[in-house]
């Protein structure tokens, strides 16, 4: 006897496969959602932690900027105090500059040279005088350039030929000159003396002049 199955088994099989597919699709979507949610929560936690670190760093940066401003203000105040201290020290050291100027002029003036007037403007001294000849003026320039620890960089501004009446019948030709020379401060003289003493092969005359300039600063 032949048995014939008249039920729609193919449609039932397709239905079961369709239901299994949708079930697996739903499970995959659920797993994907769970994974995505977990990753979102993890990244959100990482971002929040980094934002907290950034905020802490920003707060510390603001504090450091404030400290840097305070340090800069302190440095400016220290520089101003040092400038005032240096100014006071320069004033104290420069009290004897006119004495050194007159002493050096007496030492360096050659015979036959006479100073009629001098004027000091800060550290520049203007000398006006008369010499018996141009050679005497040249000798004065050499003395001021090489032999004086307090006077430096002499500059001849003008030299004019003139005459002096020694008597109604005796007229002598002279050289009227105008020159400028720089008067060094005590600190500059000390630095020059220290450099000359530390330099190799210093001549004895240079050492002697430096030694003579050092005690003069203390007067």
What does this molecule look like?
Strand 1 and strand 2 form a beta hairpin. With 219 residues, the protein is of the alpha+beta class. The protein is 62% helix and 22% strand. Strands 1-2-4-3 form a four-stranded antiparallel beta sheet. Helix 4 (186-198) runs antiparallel to helix 5.
Comma- or semicolon-separated keywords:
disordered C terminus; 62% helix; 4 strands; 219 residues; alpha+beta; rod-shaped; four-stranded antiparallel sheet; 5 helices
Placed side by side, the strands forming the largest sheet appear as: 1-2-4-3
Instruction: Please summarize the sheet with the most strands.
Output: 4 strands, antiparallel
Which structural class fits the helix and strand makeup?
A: alpha+beta
Helix fraction bin? 55-70%
- Give the overall shape, derived from the CA principal axes: rod-shaped
Strand proportion: 15-25%
SSE arrangement, N to C: HHEEHEEHH
Distance between the termini: 149 Å
Q: How much is the radius of gyration in Å?
A: 49 Å
* Strand element count: 4
Q: Overall pLDDT, averaged? A: 82
The residue ranges in which pLDDT falls below 50 over 5 or more consecutive positions are 202-219
Q: Number of DSSP helices?
A: 5
